Amino acid sequence: MADNKLPELDSTPIPLLEKVRSEGRVWEDLCEQYGVDNPDPPWKEALEGTCDALSAEACALPLLERRWEEDELSDDLYADVPYPERQLLALAHSMIRRGILDEEELARRMEEVTRRLNRV
Amino acid sequence: MAEKHKPAPMVDEVSEFEVLEVAVRELAIEKGLFSAEDHRRWTEYIHTLGPLPAARLVAKAWLDPEFKKLAVTDGVKASLDVGVDWISGMPTEFGTPSDYCNLRVLEDTPTVKHVVVCTLCSCYPRPILGQSPEWYRTPNYRRRLVRWPRQVLAEFGLQLPEGVTVRVEDSNQKSRFIVLPVRPEGTDGWSEDQLAEIVTRDCLIGVAVPKPGVTANTPRPVRPAVNPVEHH
Q: How many distinct structural domains can be found in chain A?
């Protein structure tokens, strides 16, 4: 009988994502501070778009596998992070562990994006 | 005059999470996993989704027995009447792996109550019902509903009499479900618009029943699962 088991997910913490988890401000807190009542962060739809495109366009990360890994990481490593921040961390985690993204490359890009978005 | 034009409050801060989302997306595009155009198409599609078409489908079915017959026999065809094309309306134009083109409408009766779950992941009839709520995605809801449906429904505030049978329908990559609840008393003479207003997302999943005067979903608790996840 063929072994249909999915490849084991490496759920050990990833330093870059641990930094985001511990230092990042979740939407819930930002809403409270700024008096905003939108239930979802503005980046949520873009995140959903990325998840769909990753699954449908090139099958780089199939939906079912992503959701299973998200469940596993949400149960444990990112259990204290609210949704949808947890979904985002789990997606980045899966992509790094699968070798789709490189942690250092992602860290560099995050620095660039931070500079760009904060330029006024 | 100026006081009338106060800007709405805004979050004036870029969070690490927002930065992470942008960075992941940009790198995925640069690596050719999808194009910027693909992403725009998907995001715009997601933005259009919501529970209104499903609510309207139910309201129409309550008012028109012929339409109800169509809805319960061919949900995909009935969806066209509320502006949802399960086949060519998707960004891929042939359905999608996550929104497969088969919708079934589960008709409640006074003695049978349907409720929808996805035990495998979080399959959901997005084209007609929008994005799934957080609690629907949790392993806690997914595992417990199939084992103790009555108890879980009671936690949602839905106490069912002994004589009512509960049917749990498990979604999958081929089939999606919405519930067609029993039309509540006190709605005689109501228009389609009035009826659609009381068919909330939770009624369409089956964890609530429509009631005159109730037009919003109640906030639901999200609970962790006790046992670890194991996928085989």
A: 1
Cα gap B77→B86, rounded to integer Å: 9
Question: Tens of pLDDT along B85-97?
Answer: 888 777 765 555 5
Q: Residue B204 in contact with residue B152, Cβ under 8 Å?
A: no
Q: Which chain B positions have a beta carbon within 8 Å of A42's beta carbon?
A: 18
- Asked whether the beta carbons of B104 and B98 are under 8 A apart, the reply is no
Exactly one of B118, B171, B191, B203 is catalytic; name it.
Answer: B118
Domain residues of chain B, as ranges? Answer: 16-48, 50-205
Q: How far is Cα B223 from Cα B227, in angstroms, rounded to an integer?
A: 12
B118 catalytic residue (yes or no): yes
Smallest CA–CA distance from B40 into chain A, residue: A49
**Rounded to two decimals, what is the model's pTM?**
0.85
The string of pLDDT tens digits covering residues B95-154 is: 555 556 789 999 999 999 999 999 988 889 999 999 899 899 888 899 999 999 999 999
Q: Can you give the residue range of the structural domain that contains A83?
A: 40-118
- Whole-number CA gyration radius for chain B: 20
Is B121 noted as a catalytic residue in this protein?
Answer: yes
B41, A46 contact by CB (below 8 A): no
CA dihedral B6, B9, B10, B12 (to 10 degrees): 90
Query: Facing residues of B178 across strands?
Result: B105
Of B19, B222, B229, the CB nearest to A113: B19
- Backbone torsions φ then ψ of B166, nearest 5 degrees: -105, 130
Best residue of A33, A40, A48, A52 to probe chain B, by most B CBs closer than 10 Å = A52
Superfamily of domain B50-205: Nitrile hydratase alpha /Thiocyanate hydrolase gamma (3.90.330.10)
